[in-house]
Amino acid sequence: MQLYKNQDLRVYNSLSGKKEVLKPINEGHIGMYVCGPTVYSNVHLGNCRTFMSFDMIFRYFRHLGFKVRYVRNITDAGHLENDSDDGEDKISKKAKLEQIEPMEVVQRYTVDFHETLQKFNFLPPSIEPTATGHIIEQIEIIKEILEKGYAYEVNGSVYFDVLKFNETNEYGKLSGRKLEDMVANTRELTAQDEKRNPQDFALWKKAEPQHIMRWPSPWGDGFPGWHLECTAMSTKYLGETFDIHGGGMDLKFPHHECEIAQAEASRGKSPVKYWLHANMLTLNGKKMSKSTGNNIYPSEIFSGDNDILSKAYAPSVVRFFMMQAHYTSILDLSDDALLASEKGYNRLMDGINGIEKISIGATSDFDIRAWQQKCYEAMNDDFNTPILIANLFEAIKHINLIKEGKESITQEDKALLQKTMSNFVHDILGLENQSNTKDDSNALNGVMDLLIELRNEARANKDFATSDKIRDELTALGIQLKDGKDGTTFSVN
Ligand SMILES: [Zn+2]
Predict the structure, then answer these.
(1) Is the pTM of this model over 0.85?
(2) Which of 62, 135, 263, 430 has the fewest CB atoms lying closer than 10 Å?
(3) Domain span at residue 418?
(4) What are the pLDDT digits (tens) for 439-472?
């Protein structure tokens, strides 16, 4: 069904700073590229939020009947520490630290990334290309940029000439920065610097003898600059100009600005029609950071194994929590916020599960079609999931009134309500019905309470053989016990 023909979808384009009506380059088709992870460590929850925002967007496009090619890359080379041109390669550094091959690092954390996203019920992208699989394409783009005169070679490295580019193009237009200001605010180059200007960035870096990940090129052995892979892979699979480029807000500058410069310098065309940026996730009001310890991993939320949490949370609860905020707003994660989301999620699922059982009447007190259109309008307004969720709860309110016999619904409207709820909750928001087996989970809770009580008795009697046996057997079944100050809780993996 080509629902998109009847919907006026507007997206916030970071390039224009405005909401614009989405008009794909080829009618009925959407090409979308999203910067993927650098696979040198476990994916953290902030990254998951960015990818989840684009998963929701991908799902909505598909629901509207667009044929979507969604490309999300894996960065497995070329990303240096501090996103700079001089640090150590993040993957090589980890490989040295753990004394394994760089490709083992890549494999380990790519698997972790996929497993985590699967738990959150992500749809896989259409193509998931890697930087190391596209070295030839990256070298070709460097050659084109050199030919056009927007880059220069020094000692086996190639740099993009930002000042030269800015004479004919506009460097900084996405992030709203002016090159003059950037120049005024940076230090002078020293004699050892290879760059002509501090704003220049590496397209190709010469590999020093100790650098493990290296490839031959016309400029000698080296590796590509971080920004280049996304230009190479996006245009290879989506064309020289494509519809949507997404990523985290923090990538707007310099990464996405450099992508625009590379594409315009090599092909003379602006690569992207709509730039979409997802905002960050904070933790207890502060920016997440590995160095300060204000950080949380998805596995810790699923197990409850983190000091800031009072219990474990199911992936769908976390997903619901994320969807309650607009993707361009900062979202703060805390135990209280998760507890509130869990209540909301359960209320939503109970409501959906209850539709089946509501009895039908001769008339409807609830205008389902008007409500359905409000749900679409929320999503058409730059994917406004918080407004959508408010509308879903409005329907839940009516479902409850019908259950209480205070309102009625026709058979036809009931079917439409059920279908629409399922479309928005499961297909578009990507929420799984994890309270489907409510009777089973009540039974499980009862059994677990009993086992926890028996274990506590055993421990009180210093019968550690029995208490350990209970814990170990449960662990083998995928059930984790967590002893906290308010007693013992459990989580199921
Ligand atoms: Zn990128």
Answers:
(1) yes
(2) 62
(3) 282-428
(4) 566 677 788 888 988 998 998 899 999 988 998 8
